[in-house]
């Protein structure tokens, strides 16, 4: 098990913003961002049907469809089908994520974690992505932030539907690996405890970050490392608040989060460190973390991410974070 042997580096491209997350991104800007990522050497791209009701996959496919398929790694997600019917994107029930993709395509989004739905989702994604194969497939959002108290029902639907299909595809060599794509720790922990399911990795968004890592650090990350199940770090900037933005977990950051970022920023300035670099490198420092996939919506952001992952950070900075109780005392840091 594990996916890191297939990954071409420790920095990938998260394409949720290409689905017009938060704003209507001009087509030329979106395509230029993907092209820049390619030109800068990024070769792992992650997407999902949910991102703008297929818009992210379509835009990604427009660029990657002209690239040599053997030179990049591609992942998408299952659990939602994109219908030809239309609806008002602003009225979609997105749980805690509100109107996240209200600027996306108007196509109706239908939840479906069944075996048939999984096959259909993959077939549809291949067409939108303009490709003949996928490398990794993640089961999307079987977690509390979308399902609330009913999340275990959604998990059970995926356990009996999507899980065995993806495991069979992996065993047949059709895909290289599978797992979950979620914003909560508990579904991945539950999957790691199943006897019949053997995921190769999972995308964990926003839960092993500079601002929020205690729960994942306690059990999930050590168990994943022990079992050889690699964690893809999604949302390393927690929706942008540690990269100069104002959002935390898809909403306006609370005063407590803003204050925490200010405290981290003050220490970063004292040590000549950018907060973006600190956030990205912290998430990657754990042995279970295989790759980070920050989202990019503008060509300049790609260069910033590459600079952040390579920026030298003195050990004294991490010591200061620990002394000020801004990171867990037992959290791995890059210099150790």
Automatic annotation (TrEMBL):
<dbReference type="InterPro" id="IPR020471">
    <property type="entry name" value="AKR"/>
</dbReference>
<feature type="domain" description="NADP-dependent oxidoreductase">
    <location>
        <begin position="10"/>
        <end position="323"/>
    </location>
</feature>
<protein>
    <submittedName>
        <fullName>Aldo/keto reductase</fullName>
    </submittedName>
</protein>
<dbReference type="InterPro" id="IPR036812">
    <property type="entry name" value="NAD(P)_OxRdtase_dom_sf"/>
</dbReference>
<dbReference type="Pfam" id="PF00248">
    <property type="entry name" value="Aldo_ket_red"/>
</dbReference>
<dbReference type="InterPro" id="IPR023210">
    <property type="entry name" value="NADP_OxRdtase_dom"/>
</dbReference>
